Amino acid sequence: MSSPRASSQGEFDANGAAIDDRPRLTEDEKKQNHIASEQKRRQAIRDGFDRLTELVPGLQGQGRSEGLVLKRTVDFIRANLDERQKLIRQVEAKGGKVEDYLRV
Hints:
By secondary structure, the chain is mainly α. The protein has helices at about 25-55, 65-95; strands at about 5, 10, 20. A three-stranded antiparallel sheet has the order 1-2-3, with no helix packed on it.
């Protein structure tokens, strides 16, 4: 079809495939990148659990069991939602109006 050509978008070979000037990663480099990505992902999860232990009452300063953190977080959120509904009912019982966006 054509000979190698250059364009503003990069270089192409005779078959029109893009020529990448960057060297390909070795298998070891790919493995190391994967390991680093996995470590970063795990650290993000640990950081998230640490933030939950700071926010949820009763979790500060305890050894962290992720299952316990999740259970207590769910319990805490449910209790807060129940309290919110109770307060909404009290406001409405006294003739007040609660905006729809506050009911969520």
